[in-house]
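Researcher: I'm preparing a figure for a lab meeting and need a structural model of a single chain. I don't have an experimental structure, so a prediction will have to do for now. The sequence is pasted below. Please return the structure as tokens so I can convert it later.
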Amino acid sequence: MAVKDVAADGVDPRLHPDFPESGAPSPRANSELIGHIEAEQRLARAAQDGTIAGAWLIGGPMGIGKATLAYRLARHLLADGGNDMFGGAGDSLALDEADPVFARVAGAAHGDLLTVELGLNKQGKRRTEIVVDDIRKLEPFFHQSAGEGGWRVAIIDGAELMNRNAANAALKLIEEPPKRSIVILVSHAPARLLPTIRSRCRKLHLRPLKPEQVSLLLEQHLPDVSQEDRLPLARLAEGSPGRAMRLEALGGLGLYREILGLIGEAPRIDPLALHGLADRLGGRGNDAACYTAMDFLGAWLARLVHAGAVQEIADHQDVVPGEGALMARMASGGNLERWVDVWEKVARLRDRADSLNLDRKQVVLAAFGAVEAAARA
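Model: Understood. Here is the structure written out token by token.
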């Protein structure tokens, strides 16, 4: 299974959940939330009893439903779900898809909802950070009357991508939010936010979904994915439905199998197969595939080191059949330091490829060369 070409847009794909297109429904229009019942109940009860905070920080790994939950809360409030202290469904934020509010939020046409996310630069390419002008749009939005006399809701999606000036501007709004206004920050890396922002937000941390839950979502949204591939994709995505769908769009499962096939040949990796992979990953437009391959290799080496340290190989978590046996073979001999060195080298190569714009083909060859040398030792 070959890696599918993905057009590059000059943006690190690991920072942006819409690269490549995943086939997942937009969080704006997604009526389904799986695996986050307790978080939803907490928000619903706060809205019902009038204790909803003016600022919320929803954190957790990419692609697990954080933005979906944020829009779910927004729809609930905009449909006046936060104005009923004596009735309504206190454990759910669900809104019928036939409700006009649902359709207007899905179409980005509700005047009392404003979303801030990565904008475009003057060249029309997506920025790598949220800038202060993006955040400044919130000030007039919050200081005008709600168009429908209810709540005003702002969602900052990818809040960790705010630069310093943008973060300071957001802080001013969060410190003194107007009445019946709420700012919802969605973040894949909350620790990167200013401590003062984190301290002024009510926090919700969402956990990755179970592989079976991710597999179910794959079946619903990507019915062409075979039953045999759904659970491996779910495990490879580490509990993130969004990542699983992006990996499918990228041909990620085939790429992972190819990488493990090469590792399994160490210390005598077929040079033609290795150079073929390196040529593809180093080719124009395959930035996302190369980043993904290096992440796969680094994560597998980290698992190898951990498994060797605790002397436990979890066969039931194999993505590819026989992966546990391969890991056990590589970990045999007791000298894990050589694999720690390889893991660190692969991480350095990946980071240097990002920051120094190195030749990606040479980065791939160097990474697998380190694997060969360690297997030979």
